[in-house]
Each structure stands twice: as structure tokens, then as C-alpha cells.
């Protein structure tokens, strides 16, 4: 079996990532050697591969669904927004440029070549490549320079299925409109639709499905139901509410309350998923001045990663949340950018160009931003347990004295800081850390669950995504598209040529 497919969506967060992961898991269970591919990803959630390349977390989860090691070819272009108009561009997992929205166009021809080379390397190495689009294929203002959607599909002759999120409402209009706004050559590759996140009796949709097929000449290849507590590594904060829920069955005592600060450029917030998966741990994201009380009352406050450390620190001060964090007497954890904010002084001529900035002063440390980006897969030990993690940062932290080392960071009393992402996914370390947090917070009634495996939980979630495809999609039609490509003679809707 050899072939390919592109999963596009009517909008961001329509479900492209989870459908792509589900198709990868379904095919892998059939014995197909399959790989995911996203030519261009815009995300602040990233990961470091075994060979030191930075790619989007969603493609890492999709590779896990496929049962293969993630590589830079699976996400050759990664855009990491640092402001309203500027992005840090990673190419094949390495820093490439910092550009604004208009400057980026000058790089498109080269980046298209890079993306296609990656795609063809995957096609040569795997039986099937399942591609994920970016945003919507009908961003008609950007079509000329498109790399990730119909530009890729046209260049490589890839059949396309379009996912629509019915939970948002207007799914039939959005599916029809997505097709209608495309030019005829693009429309010829749109081979079917998938409706995602449906609640209710599927037969209620039958008249609409029949009319959509009559109007477009394309079938709906499945109606995927809404599933509670279904999640995977996310691309952006639009989907934060789909992180794992708090599971407290079998737990005695009140919840250990964790407040996570959600600043504007929050990154790698998947660090929190392992905490949220713990029975008896309640995770809340806080982001407004009115949340100061939540910070004061939490048993643990987490300052997560940030793509704009100095900018998000200024935001903390504007909202008054900086004072709430600095005024706490209870446990506080800073991860990467959050750790940098907790230092006494930050020197940044690289990311923000702000020069010297006062930090929160929670740790006796100084941060200096350097031009060279650190991408690493460190291993270490804490609380007597091994810890494997990954590092992504420009800021280099040095201790001023009086601090205890902690995972390439430091600790003073009940304040911890680390540069390492993913540390909390290590089960034994996480339990020991939570026990220490509970003791420091005076929560004698909280004892971490002894048997939670975060890796096993992630595998169950990926299996659930595979089940969604196997049980609710027309897998025969999907296989036909993958192997044989888009059907010949698909009708073109007139608006596509009327631009």
C-alpha cells in the first residue's frame, strides 16, 4: 500500500490535528508504515527531536500515533509568533530568520522548495504520508504563496478531505464555502468532507449530508462524535480547554489547586497536561486582574514557558498579577520563560531588545539572552528519580548564590525554577514533586496517586483517536483516496473561477 492524503479544515481548531493523528493511528494498527507531515506550522507549542530539531508538538503526537520517531521533515517550517506582526522562523528544526508578516513573503519560494523536499523524503521512506493543512485552505489573500494547503496539494497531486467543526455552528455553509472559494484546479483535489465534534443523533444530519453532496458532488466521509476528555498535544492556546480533565475518582481529600498563568505569548503549555491528568489535582488557567485571588489561594502557581519573556513579564505587571505572584508565600514553579521571569535581573538584547529589565526577584539569579538558541534533550535526576526532558531557550540563567540546584535551574524554599520542558511527564518525579508541594502548602490531606502513567494515558488518547476514524469514518473511501488519489471529473463550483 502506497499513497498520501491531506487533511484540511474550514478554520483553525476545526480538528485537523486530531483527525490526522487518528488516521495515522488507524493505519499503523493495520500494519501500514505511516508518517505525518505539516509543511508549515504556526505554533508556540514545540518539541526537540532526538537529533536536536525543533518541531511542532502536534506533529510529535501524530508521529507517536503512527508509532515512529518524529523528525524535522515532519514539520520543516515552524513559525513561532513573538508579537502581533513578527515571527521566529524555524527551518528543518533550526533557527532561520525573524521576520514580520510582509517580509515573510520574500522567503516563500525557498521555503516551498524545502517543504516539498521534506515531503518527498517522507514519501520515499514510508508507505503513506498523511499531511495536515494549516488554518483554512481558503485564505484567498494568501493563496499565491501558499505552502501548506492547496499549494502543497497541487504541487504534489495530493487528494484533500476538509474537516468542519459542527460544534461552532454553520458547518454546511463553511464546508460549501471552503470549496466554492477555491479556483477550479484546487477544487479538483477536494475529494470529500468530514464533520467533527457532533453531539446528538447522526441521522438528524442525513438531509444536510445529502444536500451537501448534491450541491458539491463530494460525499461526507464521516461524522465524528464529540468525545469528552479527548485531547492531544495542542498547537495553540485556542484549544486550551481540551487539555486532559481533572480525574479525581478514588481520591480522598480536597483537590490540590494549581493556578497556571496564561500570558499572551504562553508557550509549551503542554507541560501542564501531566499535572491536570493527576487524580486530586485541579488546574485552572488565570489571565485577568480579577484572578489575583486565585493566585493567592492556589496551592501551587505555575509560570509556564513564554515566547516573549520580557513582553509577558510587562503584561504580568500591567494586570497586577506580578504582584500577586511575588506576594505569595506558597509554592511557585517557573518553567523556561516563567523561570526567567522569576530572576532578579534580565538582560535581553536578543528577543525583545529591551536591555536590562527587573525580574520578579523570586530567585537569586540573572538571565542573559544570547543569539544562539539552545535546543537540547537533557536527562538528570531530582528527588532520587531520573528525569528526561527537552530544552528550548535563548536565555541563559546564572545563580547569584544561595540557591539549591534543580533540573538545570534552582530552588529556594518553596520556589522552583527550571529550563526543562516535559519534566512533569516523568511519573516518579512528578509524584515526588507534588508530595513536596503539598507539604510546603500545608496540605497534609493530599497524597499523589501511586499508579498514574502519563505515557499510558497519552497512548489511550491516541488509540481513542484511531477508534474515532475506524468507527465513524468511511475507511474504505479514505483508503481509496490514499492509494488512488482524487477521483477524476469532480465538478467545479462556478464561484471558484469568478475571482
From TrEMBL:
Pathway participation: Cofactor biosynthesis; adenosylcobalamin biosynthesis
Residues covered by the CobQ/CobB/MinD/ParA nucleotide binding domain: 6-230
Source domain of life: Bacteria
Entry-linked Gene3D superfamilies: 3.40.50.880, P-loop containing nucleotide triphosphate hydrolases (3.40.50.300)
GO BP field: cobalamin biosynthetic process
Domain (CobB/CobQ-like glutamine amidotransferase) ranges: 257-428
Keywords tagged on the record: Cobalamin biosynthesis, Glutamine amidotransferase
GO molecular function, one term: catalytic activity
Residues annotated as the enzyme's active site: 336 (nucleophile), 421
InterPro entries reported in the protein's UniProt record: Class_I_gatase-like, CobQ/CobB/MinD/ParA_Nub-bd_dom, CobQ_GATase1, CobQ_N, CobQ_synth, GATase_3, P-loop_NTPase
Its job: Catalyzes amidations at positions B, D, E, and G on adenosylcobyrinic A,C-diamide. NH(2) groups are provided by glutamine, and one molecule of ATP is hydrogenolyzed for each amidation.
Family: Belongs to the CobB/CobQ family. CobQ subfamily.
NCBIfam families named among the record's database cross-references: cobQ, PRK00784.1
Protein name per the record: Cobyric acid synthase
Lineage start: Bacteria, Bacillati, Actinomycetota, Actinomycetes, Streptosporangiales
Amino acid at each position: 500500500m502506497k499513497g498520501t492524503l491531506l487533511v484540511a479544515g474550514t478554520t483553525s481548531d476545526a480538528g485537523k490535528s486530531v483527525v490526522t493523528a487518528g488516521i495515522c493511528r488507524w493505519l499503523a494498527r493495520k500494519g501500514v508504515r505511516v508518517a505525518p507531515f505539516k509543511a508549515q506550522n504556526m505554533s508556540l507549542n514545540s518539541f526537540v527531536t532526538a537529533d536536536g530539531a525543533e518541531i511542532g508538538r502536534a506533529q510529535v503526537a501524530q508521529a507517536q500515533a503512527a508509532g515512529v520517531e518524529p523528525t524535522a521533515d515532519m514539520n520543516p517550517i515552524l513559525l513561532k509568533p513573538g508579537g502581533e506582526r513578527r515571527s521566529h522562523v524555524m527551518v528543518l528544526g533550526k533557527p532561520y530568520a525573524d521576520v514580520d508578516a510582509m517580509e515573510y513573503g520574500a522567503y516563500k519560494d525557498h521555503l516551498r522548495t524545502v517543504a516539498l523536499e521534506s515531503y518527498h523524503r517522507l514519501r520515499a521512506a514510508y508507505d503513506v504520508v498523511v499531511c495536515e493543512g494549516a488554518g483554512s485552505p481558503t485564505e484567498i489573500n494568501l493563496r499565491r504563496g501558499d505552502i501548506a494547503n492547496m499549494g502543497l496539494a497541487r504541487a504534489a497531486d495530493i487528494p484533500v478531505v476538509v474537516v468542519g467543526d459542527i460544534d461552532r455552528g454553520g458547518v454546511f455553509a463553511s464546508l460549501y464555502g471552503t470549496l466554492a472559494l477555491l479556483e477550479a484546479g484546487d477544487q479538483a483535489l477536494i475529494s470529500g468532507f468530514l464533520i467533527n465534534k457532533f453531539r446528538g443523533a447522526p441521522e438528524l444530519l442525513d438531509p444536510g449530508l445529502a444536500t451537501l453532496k448534491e450541491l458539491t458532488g463530494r460525499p461526507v466521509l464521516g461524522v465524528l462524535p464529540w468525545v469528552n476528555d479527548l485531547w492531544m498535544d495542542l498547537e495553540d492556546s485556542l484549544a486550551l480547554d481540551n487539555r486532559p480533565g481533572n480525574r479525581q475518582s478514588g481520591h480522598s481529600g480536597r483537590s490540590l489547586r494549581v493556578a497556571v498563568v496564561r500570558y499572551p505569548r504562553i508557550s509549551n503549555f503542554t507541560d501542564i497536561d501531566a499535572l491536570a491528568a493527576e487524580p486530586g489535582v485541579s488546574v485552572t488557567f488565570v489571565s485577568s486582574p480579577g484572578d489575583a485571588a486565585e493566585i493567592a489561594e492556589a496551592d501551587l502557581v505555575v509560570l509556564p514557558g513564554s515566547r516573549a519573556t520580557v513582553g509577558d513579564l510587562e503584561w504580568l505587571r500591567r494586570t497586577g498579577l506580578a504582584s500577586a505572584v511575588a506576594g505569595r508565600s506558597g509554592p511557585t514553579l517557573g518553567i523556561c520563560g516563567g523561570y526567567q521571569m522569576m530572576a532578579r535581573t534580565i538582560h535581553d538584547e536578543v528577543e525583545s531588545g529591551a536591555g536590562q529589565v527587573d525580574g520578579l526577584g523570586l530567585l537569586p539569579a540573572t538571565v542573559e539572552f544570547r543569539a544562539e538558541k539552545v535546543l537540547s534533550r537533557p536527562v538528570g535526576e531530582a528527588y532520587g528519580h531520573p528525569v528526561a526532558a527537552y530544552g528550548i531557550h535563548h536565555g541563559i540563567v546564572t545563580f547569584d548564590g544561595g540557591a539549591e540546584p534543580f533540573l538545570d535551574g534552582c530552588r529556594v524554599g518553596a520556589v522552583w525554577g527550571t529550563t526543562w520542558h516535559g519534566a512533569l511527564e516523568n511519573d516518579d518525579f512528578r509524584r515526588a514533586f507534588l508530595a513536596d508541594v503539598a507539604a510546603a502548602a500545608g496540605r497534609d490531606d493530599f497524597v499523589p496517586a501511586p499508579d498514574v502513567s502519563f505515557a499510558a494515558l497519552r497512548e489511550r488518547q491516541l488509540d481513542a483517536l484511531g477508534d474515532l476514524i475506524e468507527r465513524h469514518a468511511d475507511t474504505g473511501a479514505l483508503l481509496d483516496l490514499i492509494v488512488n488519489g482524487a477521483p477524476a471529473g469532480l465538478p467545479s463550483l462556478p464561484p471558484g473561477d469568478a475571482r
